[in-house]
């Protein structure tokens, strides 16, 4: 067997055993306070570094989903019965259970996702940040009093949904897990979460550690693993699930929203993007190049907010793209376990093949490869897996598929514009609307352009600054609803309006009372 995969398997076995997950047949679900093996078909995961088989586990199957949903309902009843401040204290206490295991979590993610270990360490840090932030919200969901034109006291309280279903992708498994678990708990819900079948383990570990702290009711958090069309579809159809929160591709998002609509259950969709990174000639060009590089090549381009369309004012187009191509060639592409690595492989074969075929199709359509375009040449022989060199394409027209579709890989298309109006028109000329950036030293122009972008997040002279405090989500095919911040919290509760008669004698109206209607 490939030496690198052998090493990865050994490391994975150690890590799964460390978390009590049984390396031989991983216990890949966390249900009602215990680890449970799946009962469905076998799922085989490749080693992203070599393409060889890394580990096998079993799809959850329908019976486990029933158990998870029932456990979540029981756990939620106990959770909701606590005071709000007690819920906040307990979220903070639960978080402490992760202490000492952060490095093992990062290693586990790195081995399975093929993500540079340093990136995974940063992701674990985000788990902490999100729990701390939302724990603080528990006792601050005040509700309000409405000055209604009657003798009633009318107040609004925020009521939890009960059990929510969450579905997450493979590119940021721990980030998206904590991103959705924390506000769901803060608003008083129980959860059944299904991570991507490609990165199943770290969400199980996070739920397990949090619950084993003893701070959360047993069964409050449940993680089921399996394919989208089996376990995922069963989750979206389950009668106990009162709201669906989905992070993934527009294709799957459509199915999730349809499944929700069939049961009249609302959904939040956090989907993909084709974000425009706009560089004006009056920008600080060195910073814009560094920003453009991080915007697309971080996480090997497997990021929803990747700045995958670089729009550059024509007078500096050659300078910017040449500097960017040279910078791309300096990025250390290497093994995820190596701390010097800035870019690892793509996570899976399907994604690798899709990205390669999109590059080939773009070239066939007339695009020119300025750098990259295939496998990097600097890797050890055994690293035959899903690596693609940082790629910059020019001679791209806005109607080409490569300029319209999400690549989700380290591929940047660069296009020139002549004036501000054209920059805005090009930036908005996709079906997506997740993020975008403007680089300019002219303050008025930067704000003017930012205000015209149809994107949920816009940066000025920056890229990828994201924090749990600030709302995040899309326009158009990038989805609807919001995560992070107070807006993200509000997605997890329903306003309930309570009317209390304060008149000495209740005047019960027949029809709409008190002059209304
Ligand atoms: P995907 O849509 O293939 O899968 C996402 C999840 O949906 C997985 O858990 C999968 O098993 C599940 N799923 C698929 N079909 C399903 C079905 N019929 N019913 C229920 N569940 C189903 O996406 P992916 O390839 O894992 O992730 C990449 C995509 O995610 C990209 O488009 C990326 O932009 C997007 N993404 C968006 C955000 C955001 O916050 N907007 C964040 C990260 C990733």
UniProtKB/TrEMBL annotation:
Listed Gene3D superfamilies: Aldehyde Dehydrogenase, Chain A, domain 1, Aldehyde Dehydrogenase, Chain A, domain 2
UniProt keyword annotation of Oxidoreductase present: yes
Domain called Aldehyde dehydrogenase: residue spans: 39-498
Catalytic site: 270
Superkingdom assignment: Bacteria
Entry-linked InterPro entries: Ald_DH/histidinol_DH, Ald_DH_C, Ald_DH_CS_CYS, Ald_DH_CS_GLU, Ald_DH_N, Aldehyde_DH_dom
UniProt keyword list: Oxidoreductase
Claim: Membrane is one of the keywords in the record: no
Family under the similarity heading: Belongs to the aldehyde dehydrogenase family.
Protein name per its UniProtKB record: Aldehyde dehydrogenase family protein
Species whose genome carries this gene: Halomonas dongshanensis
